[in-house]
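Lecture notes, unit on binding sites. The following record was shown on slide 14. It pairs a sequence with erythose-4-phosphate.
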Amino acid sequence: MLRPEEIPAHIGLRRTVMDETTPTPADKNLKHPAEKAPRVFADTGTIDEIRPLLDAGIIDGVTTNPTLLKRAGASSWDMAKKMMKDIVKLLDPYPVSLELIELTKDKMIIQAEELASYGSNVVIKVPVGGYQAVDSSFDKHTGLKVLNVLWKKNIKTNATLIFNSAQALWAARAGATYVSPFLGRLADYLYKHDEVEMPVGNSLYYMEDHRGKKENTKVHNTAYVAAGGARKNAGIRLIHEISVIFSNYEIKTEILAASFRNDVQVQESLLCGADILTVPAPILMRVADHPLTEEGFKAFNEDSKAFEK
Ligand code: E4P
């Protein structure tokens, strides 16, 4: 668990450059007390999971991806598009991220324009990299180029599949509205692939083997996470790192913490400066539950019976 004292105070300074998330309407005398609170999105393609969270005022946005839409029952692109349209309509005016499935720049831009036509609340999700993993002849910078074209076209974007702070910075400089660091997947990966006798992060980062026997040459991130993070909170430390960099340079691209695996990560992301959290619905439904709240409420309710006539 990341301890509050590990969080530098200047993370709070980021709020001074960021816009209000819950501005008080001009006709209200009582100022909204949480004008700069972080936003919470539901990470799902299932509309029935969204409704109760929206009704309770817990979420003010949704993120989807091809896996989530497939899980929600889409078996064709037409079905997926219908589901996305329904979510966009339900959420209006709150943002809904819709992910591109085309893989080349020109086709991605055409598809982005089509998806953006579903509503003014659509945000186009663009994978920041990985194109050459699909086809080695592809341009590895396709995502950054698409982000930049969409910024020029005034279309909001969410740079997805962010696993290091350089990717986040490249995406912000290309004009991304949001960057999505996948904290859960990063922690899962290190937990699964790190060799425990070597320093944390050895499966992703270059770590000199002090015994001179072995070197890992996969350089995927700065030394920060590798040097300081435990495997389980490596993802949280990535959010922290991006938050410090964006604070230092007054970058207004919002940090959309993604890929949550448990309730603790929700609170840790808030501690370390995420601007928005996109969380699976089952976690959102339970994260604010507490057994002492239940016990306390039951007792108050019992005692209130003394007042019944
Ligand atoms: C973010 O927008 C993604 O949809 C999501 O958080 C991915 O999470 P996963 O690692 O659970 O697939």
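Take-home: The mean pLDDT is 90.
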